[in-house]
C-alpha cells in the first residue's frame, strides 16, 4: 500500500511563499530511522509524520538532520491536510500527541489557530561569539530550552542580516531567533530564525520561535495580541495571542502537491 505524501506552504495564502513542510500520513508508525531518512529525502526544514491514535493523531517532526520537539509550521501544514483531505470534518478539532505534550488546532475561517506552550527566555550574559556570528550588536540576549533570542536595534538590521552560518552551527543550541520592532506599522515585530545545527540554515517561517517571541514582546509592550512577520526571503505572517502560559499561533496554508510514496521497507 502506498503512503500519501503532501507538501504544504505554511504561514502564507500564496503558493511558493511561507515555509514548505512535508506531511506523511501513516497507517501505522514507522521507525525513527525510516522517518529521518524520508525527511532527508524531502530536504525541507521539517517533514511531519501523522499516525492516527485513539482520540487524535501522533505527530512527529524531523529536519533533514534530526527529530525536533516542537514545530509550528509543520503542525499547521498537518492540520491543513487533515481538513483538506477529509481526515477530519470541517468542525472537528485536530488533536496531536507530540514530544511537547498535547497540541490542538482549530479552523477559524481560512486561518488555522494552534494552541502551543509558551517558551519564554531568561536573560543571559552577552555573548561575543553569538554577536560575531550574527554580525550585529545585541540589545538583549535570552535563552530558553531550544534557542537563543536576540533583539537588535531596528527592522532594517533584521532584513539585512547575513550571519556566519558555520559559526552559528557551532553554538550548543537548536537555533537563533533575531527580532526587532517593526517600524513600518504594518506588523508589531519582525524576526528571522537560523538553525544550522539541525540542518536548517534559515527557516522561512518558524511557529515554535513565536512561542518565545510572544512572551518576550508581551513583557516589553504589555500587549497580548500581535501580528508578526518573519522576514526571510520567502516571508510569512503569524498571528500571536498570549493566553497565560499558552500561545495561540494562527496562520494560513496552501497545498503545493500531493503524491504517493511507495511503501518502502522500514529498515
Can you give a write-up of this model?
The chain has an 18-stranded mixed beta sheet that branches. A hairpin with a 2-residue loop joins strand 7 (101-108) and strand 8. The mean pLDDT is 95. It is built from six helices and 18 strands. The chain starts with a strand and ends in a 6-residue tail after the last strand. The protein has 267 residues and is of the alpha+beta class. It has two domains: 3-114 and 251-261, Diaminopimelate Epimerase, Chain A, domain 1 (Roll); 122-244, Diaminopimelate Epimerase, Chain A, domain 1 (Roll), CATH 3.10.310.
Helix and strand run: EEHEEEHEEEEHEEHHEEEHEEEE
- Average pLDDT reading: 95
Helical residues, percent: 10-25%
Biggest beta-sheet profile: 18 strands, mixed
Q: Any idea what the radius of gyration is?
A: 18 Å
How many domain units? Answer: 2
Oligomer: single chain
Unreliable stretches, pLDDT < 50, 5 or more residues?
Answer: none
CATH class division of the largest domain: Alpha Beta
CATH superfamily of the largest domain: Diaminopimelate Epimerase, Chain A, domain 1
The percent range for strand residues is 35-45%
Helix vs. strand class: alpha+beta
Number of helices: 6
Shape: globular
Number of strands: 18
Termini gap: 17 Å
